[in-house]
């Protein structure tokens, strides 16, 4: 006890603002349930596994630790599981994760000799008892950063409910026997609360659902609210009310009154249909995307080095799928596993290793690649039904990588592409741009856009990128006859009021070669200012690569805006071969006999610095119901790139405090702060793109950076009237990896769902000459990898 008393100065009672780690080791994935338990430093409140606590003692000299050990309790194996009724985890009515129960013990340990004192004990000094009590009672920092409960957003009261007009009081809705007024649909019916029309709901992307008659009625009449028939019961709060202008499920406080107008006695109705929220819940509990997840396949489960699953933290599959592919590359494997030990990373880390990206990347790499945690899940292994492994929870990594991005810090589903680009950007930053250390450079390549104007002279524009984003030319489908027959069948089924079964659906098949060819194909640029002709004209743009990266990532643009502002996912198959050759896509630069466009400033820009919005873009946005001024700003701030880009800007900036301010006369002129241009140049962007981005973002560097990443194809367009007069490689180009144009497919990130911000992501990776599926913490040999259903395709360059 005297030894403990002599070290009381190294014991600190935690304050409410202190972050206390007690659930996971800072440098490994050891927990209190691990064989050696967890040691909490009673000075810094950082936690360490048995094999790593000595490193902390060597680095800090802190000798006193609280040892936490959890031992599994014996519980009945036949504990029933209840069906969830709430979209939540770990709360009443939510998902019961059926986790085993553990018994927790505590001891005080003094290093370096591991002298141990039991806790609780009245013999312990009061300061020690107070510190331990505070640690035990505190909410762990891991839990604060990763909420245990995940609950869907609460429905809000509709702005249209209190003053909803109602017409046609001669309309009486019967209690049963409903049918769509415009087709023979008898389910998924919605009652418009203004005029009493009963119409079918939206058509799903796979051909199921309704025939869009309810939403078409709204577009014709602007009657805002509808209630789903079959969801109305005595519990009116459970009824599914949808607001078309608010595009969301809402609460109608006057629903009883609105229903009574049409003679509906809600107390006599019984529930026959699932609400929208229940359908979402049903999708989350029963993923029906068997093809991508290879459900029902007799898959061989795989364990060992490189085959470690990642536990889902709640909508974190976008991160898990991406990381499984990234850490299968030699560059990331070498940087954070083979060539960097956990101890080296810890010694290099600051006082708090949980906030150090280098440390957490090394921790993640060792966790995924060592095989230490690639073991069957305990609770199912003992039952002989092991279809998954425990997996490692990448909580600390997620907290660090998301610290500079508010969306990734949330529990919402995210776009895997957006996360991949953000991840590589952070890796590049943490490695200080060192080509020797930075593994993100293995994905980076140069793009050169060649502008040919009618004068015969050419200009070049260059940029660096991590991905090739490809349009999908549906007109290049190879199964046009089958598609035509399917559309006829579907029309017949619809006319008969029947649904098309999933087995009957035929999707377009587009070769990857057609997508690549579309990227390289010449594209006309309208209203391009030629410095040679000193006038606006139509130029021809082609694009090529100045270097071929070690790893080529292809992004398939499956998400488009449907007519009438509705986002849509293209339901299409991409025929992707195992190997591709993109040698023909290498840019050739200035050719013999060609003459560069002269430098110059467009006369129109000299005459006026007023920003001008493309009226076609503005008109289309206004027709969707948006404010005219807001639409003008959206077009200007996206440099008139297109309706989709303007729509995205508009939705992201509708709450800006200056959204209603008049467009200033010189807000988007030619003059930009050269120091801000230089800052963007230091990030690796080209000067032309940096200037354009700063003009489009009002001079804000952060927004300009986002604009560049969100507009990979907007480097040369109708409003970019200056020409780069050099095609020589930049210093960045010369340092990039380069080689032949032959590549082999080794990774696929697939997405299931109607939007990148919902659904589920799964990774397939080619390892040891076979394909492996990584579905969160499930790792198994792939029987039939969905090569034609990918969202992101990863290729590795073949040695020439």
UniProtKB/TrEMBL annotation:
Zn(2+) binds at residues 180, 183, 200, 213. Residues 156-266 form the UBP-type domain. CDD domains: Peptidase_C19B, UBA2_atUBP14. Residues 712-739 are annotated as: Disordered. Its EC number is 3.4.19.12. Residues 308-798 form the USP domain. GO terms for molecular function: cysteine-type deubiquitinase activity; zinc ion binding. Gene3D superfamilies: Cysteine proteinases, DNA helicase RuvA subunit, C-terminal domain, Zinc/RING finger domain, C3HC4 (zinc finger). Keywords: Hydrolase, Metal-binding, Protease, Repeat, Thiol protease, Ubl conjugation pathway, Zinc, Zinc-finger. It is an enzyme of class 3 (hydrolase). SUPFAM superfamilies: Cysteine proteinases (SSF54001), RING/U-box (SSF57850), UBA-like (SSF46934). Residues 612-653, 671-711 form the UBA domain. It comes from the Eukaryota. It catalyses: Thiol-dependent hydrolysis of ester, thioester, amide, peptide and isopeptide bonds formed by the C-terminal Gly of ubiquitin (a 76-residue protein attached to proteins as an intracellular targeting signal). Residues 715-729 have a biased composition (Low complexity). It holds the Pfam family UBA. Belongs to the peptidase C19 family. This is Ubiquitin carboxyl-terminal hydrolase. It comes from Salix udensis.
């Amino acid at each position: 006890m005297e030894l403990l008393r002599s070290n009381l100065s190294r014991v600190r009672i935690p304050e409410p603002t202190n972050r206390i780690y007690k659930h996971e080791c800072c440098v490994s994935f050891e927990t209190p349930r691990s064989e050696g338990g967890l040691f909490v430093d009673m000075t810094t409140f950082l936690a360490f596994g048995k094999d790593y606590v000595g490193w902390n003692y060597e680095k800090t000299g802190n000798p006193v630790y609280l040892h936490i050990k959890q031992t599994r309790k014996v519980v009945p194996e036949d504990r029933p599981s209840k069906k969830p009724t709430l979209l939540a985890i770990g709360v009443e009515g939510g998902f019961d994760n059926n986790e085993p129960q553990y018994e927790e013990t505590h001891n005080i340990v003094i290093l370096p000799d591991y002298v141990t004192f039991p806790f609780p004990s009245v013999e312990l000094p009061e300061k020690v008892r107070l510190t331990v009590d505070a640690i035990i009672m505190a909410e762990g920092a891991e839990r604060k950063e990763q909420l245990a409960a995940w609950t869907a957003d609460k429905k809000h009261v509709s702005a249209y409910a209190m003053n909803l007009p109602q017409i046609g009081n001669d309309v009486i809705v019967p209690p049963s026997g409903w049918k769509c007024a415009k087709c023979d649909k008898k389910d998924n019916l919605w009652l418009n609360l203004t005029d009493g029309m009963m119409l079918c709901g939206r058509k799903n992307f796979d051909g199921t659902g309704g025939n869009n008659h309810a939403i078409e009625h709204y577009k014709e009449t602007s009657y805002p609210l509808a209630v789903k028939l079959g969801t109305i019961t005595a519990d009116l709060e459970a009824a599914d009310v949808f607001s078309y202008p608010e595009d969301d499920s809402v609460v109608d406080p006057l629903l009883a009154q609105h229903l009574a107008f049409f003679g509906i006695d809600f107390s006599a109705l019984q529930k026959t249909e699932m609400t929208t929220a229940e359908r979402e819940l049903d999708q989350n509990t029963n993923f029906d995307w068997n093809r991508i997840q290879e459900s029902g396949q007799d898959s061989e489960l795989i364990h060992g080095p490189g085959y470690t699953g990642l536990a889902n933290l709640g909508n974190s599959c976008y991160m898990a799928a991406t990381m499984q592919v990234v850490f299968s590359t030699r560059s990331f494997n070498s940087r954070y596993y083979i060539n960097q030990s956990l101890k080296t990373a810890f010694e290099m880390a600051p006082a708090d290793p949980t906030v150090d990206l280098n440390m957490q990347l090394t921790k993640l790499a060792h966790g995924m690649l060592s095989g230490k945690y690639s073991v069957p899940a305990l609770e199912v292994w003992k039952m002989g039904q092991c279809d998954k492994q425990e997996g490692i929870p990448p909580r600390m990594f997620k907290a660090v990588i998301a610290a500079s991005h508010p969306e990734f810090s949330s529990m919402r589903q995210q776009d895997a592409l957006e996360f991949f680009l953000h991840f590589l950007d952070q890796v590049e930053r943490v490695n200080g741009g060192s080509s020797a250390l930075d593994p993100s450079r293995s994905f980076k390549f140069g793009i050169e856009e060649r502008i040919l104007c009618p004068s015969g002279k050419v200009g070049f524009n260059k940029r660096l990128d991590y991905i090739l984003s490809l349009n999908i030319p549906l007109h290049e489908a190879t199964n046009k006859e089958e598609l035509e027959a399917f559309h006829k069948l579907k029309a017949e089924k619809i006319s008969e009021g029947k649904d098309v079964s999933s087995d009957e659906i035929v999707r377009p098949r587009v070769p990857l070669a057609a997508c690549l060819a579309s990227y390289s194909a010449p594209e006309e640029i309208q209203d391009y200012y030629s410095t040679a002709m000193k006038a606006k004209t139509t130029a021809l743009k082609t694009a090529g690569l100045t270097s071929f990266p070690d790893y080529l990532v292809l992004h398939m643009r499956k998400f488009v805006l449907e007519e009438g502002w509705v986002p849509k996912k293209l339901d299409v198959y991409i025929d992707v071969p195992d190997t591709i050759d993109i040698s023909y896509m290498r840019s050739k630069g200035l050719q013999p006999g060609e003459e560069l466009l002269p430098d110059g400033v467009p006369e129109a820009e000299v005459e006026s610095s007023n920003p001008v919005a493309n009226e076609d873009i503005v008109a289309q946005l206004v027709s969707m119901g948006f404010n005219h001024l807001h639409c003008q700003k959206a077009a200007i701030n996206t440099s008139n790139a297109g309706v989709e880009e303007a729509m995205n800007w508009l939705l992201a900036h509708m709450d800006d405090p200056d959204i209603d301010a008049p467009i200033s006369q010189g807000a988007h002129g030619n003059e930009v702060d050269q120091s801000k241009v230089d800052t963007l140049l230091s990030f690796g962007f080209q000067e032309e793109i940096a200037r354009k981005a700063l003009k489009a973002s009002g001079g804000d560097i952060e927004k300009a950076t986002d604009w560049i990443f969100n507009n990979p194809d907007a480097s040369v367009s109708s409003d970019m009237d200056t020409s780069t007069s050099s095609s020589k490689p930049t210093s960045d180009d010369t340092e990039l990896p380069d080689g032949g144009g032959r590549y082999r497919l080794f990774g696929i990130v697939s997405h299931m769902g109607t939007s990148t911000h919902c659904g589920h992501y799964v990774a397939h990776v080619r390892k040891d000459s076979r394909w492996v599926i990584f579905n969160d913490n499930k790792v198994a040999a792939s029987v039939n990898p969905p090569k034609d259903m990918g969202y992101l395709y990863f290729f590795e360059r073949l040695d020439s």
